Every structure is written in C-alpha cells, then in structure tokens.
C-alpha cells in the first residue's frame, strides 16, 4: 500500500503510477465495483490546519480521522451539520473513517432533509488529478467565486476524478437540546404519510424516518429548549397525537441507529440505497415484496435488505426504480455480485457522455479507481 505523508508525495505517487490505482481513505467504505490496482491511501495526510469557531469554518487534511474532526468541533460546541454515516457496522469493515473519504463519497445522514448534503457544507478542496497535478478550488467562505464549482463535483466522485488532499468545511453549533417523537406499529403507507405531514409542518423537523421491522416512525426536533418544548406540544396536538417522546441522549441514540443503518447490519443479504420521491417509498416496498427496510429523509431515501445470490436483487430493484423514478446503489454485496451488476445507477446516454468527458479531463490515463463507478 502507498501511504504518502504529504501532498507533494501524493502528487509524486500519482504522477509516477504505471497502472491503475485503488484510491482509498481509511478503507471503511468498500463500495463500488472492485478495483484491481495498487492501493493508494490518503490516510497519511492528517491534521486540522485551520479551525475558526467564530467563522464556523474548518480546514483539514483529507486523511484526518472523522473522530478527530468531531472531537475538535465538540470541544467548541459545534458539529458537522450533515451527520455522516459510519459504514463499518453495515459493511463489516475495519479501519478509521476519514474526512476526505466522507467528502469523496458525499456521505450524508438523516439531517440532510434540513441541513443539506455533505457537498453543501464543502467550501473548498485541494486534490491531485490523474496527471499528478495539485489543484485547488473554492475557499473558506460561502461567497467564493472561482469559476467551475469543482468542490461539488469532487464530492461524490469516489476518487475517480482526483485524490483529495485537503477539504474546507462549514460547521454549525450543536443545538441546546433535541427530542424525538416515536410511534409504533405503523404500515409503510401510514408511516410515510405521518413523516410527510411532519415535514410539511412549520416546526423545522431535522429527522424523519420509518423502520419496517418495528413499524416505527420517528420525527426529530432540535433547537433551544423552550422552542423544542413548544414544537413538541404543537406537533403532539396537530400531527403526532399519542406518540412517545425521547429526549437528549435517548433521542440521539435513535438517530445514530438510523444514520448507520444498524437494523440491517449483521444480517445476510445485499443492501441497496435507493432514492425515490418520498411518497413513492411504500409503492417501492410493495413492488419488492415488502423486504426489511429503513425509510429515511421522510421516505426519500430507502435502505433495502435483499436476498443474496443471483444478481443480489439488481433486476427487481432497478425495475421498480425505473417505473417509479429515482436511482439505486448497491452498497453491500459480494465482490462477485459487484463485478456482475452495475453498482451505481446506470447513467442516461447524455449524462454518460458528460461523465466520460470529465474523467478524460481530470484523469486522461484512466488510473484513478477505474471501473469503480461503472
């Protein structure tokens, strides 16, 4: 494994590569078609170079452990708004999640419905392209005009356009308190309907999920204690009558479970991550024979547990998505399954041409995670 200790060493490693490179961060997200090549890890580039709590801005090397980032922010009463998932439980991987890996995969948790995705918190990046050139885009403030928005492009590119060496992020204050309203035994139809009503209310919901194994609907509210108390009362009267209330640490535990897809961890089967129109989530589950699932983002993000063997459920999932609209990603599956099916949603012809053009510009030799995204 190549593990450069500086950006210059990273650039030299890419420039000197004579074949494919399997680009990783901490190695915790083994997602995508398997890549055969020399492993290049950015985990050796570590450390927070700038943190300005007053400006809600943090700059860190891409290999900085996510835990270090979160600890530094917590010491100042702050956090990452997008609530990044820890994939280790679901995927059965080891290693240490890095901030560069989070950005490269655009990892976004339950709070995405209110605070946006990881890419929405990314202010700037430094990265090494497939030629070995060090490029920079963006900066440390939101109003930063530098032409093409490569920050958004790199977030979610899975190391196929460049190897991140540094990221700049905006952060937010940790709210004074949080609380979650919970109802048990709801069908998918009733659960998603309740989530839609909560999200359509004026009460600034920051989490809305339904779990199939318990029929449990969860709605989270965060903020100042007096505000949370008022909104709980109003939602209990208008939308969530009779629902149980979990506060503080108990509430946070519920959302860590949703964030990390814990109910599907340790169970045999492939796991799919499907994005659909929220109100179509019940129809998706019905079309697939009601598999075990977690509907996050009010139903807009559906985690599915499908049987192993064959195509791992690819034909059924993609067929249902084609009818309803949306896209599906195979998050967990054997290497054989990931070689045999398209892990990421196949692109339409026009989009595929744009993608190919971008890769030709940033990685003309085709050495950065070739084939990982199809």
Provide an overview of this structure.
With 374 residues, this protein is of the alpha+beta class. It has three domains: 7-173, 2-Layer Sandwich (Uridine Diphospho-n-acetylenolpyruvylglucosamine Reductase, domain 3), CATH 3.30.465; 177-259, Alpha-Beta Plaits (2-Layer Sandwich), CATH 3.30.70; 262-340, Alpha-Beta Plaits. It is built from 14 helices and 17 strands. β3 and β4 (57-61) form a beta hairpin.
Number of domains: 3
What is the number of helices? Answer: 14
CATH architecture of the largest domain: 2-Layer Sandwich
Largest sheet: 8 strands, antiparallel
**Helix proportion:** 25-40%
Average pLDDT metric: 95
Q: Which fold does the CATH topology of the largest domain refer to?
A: Uridine Diphospho-n-acetylenolpyruvylglucosamine Reductase, domain 3
Strand percentage lies at 15-25%
Q: Could you give the order of strands across the largest sheet? A: 13-10-12-11-15-16-14-17
Q: Strand pairing plus helix content: what structural class?
A: alpha+beta
CATH class of the largest domain: Alpha Beta
Bulk shape: globular
The count of DSSP E runs of length 2 or more, i.e. the number of strands, is 17
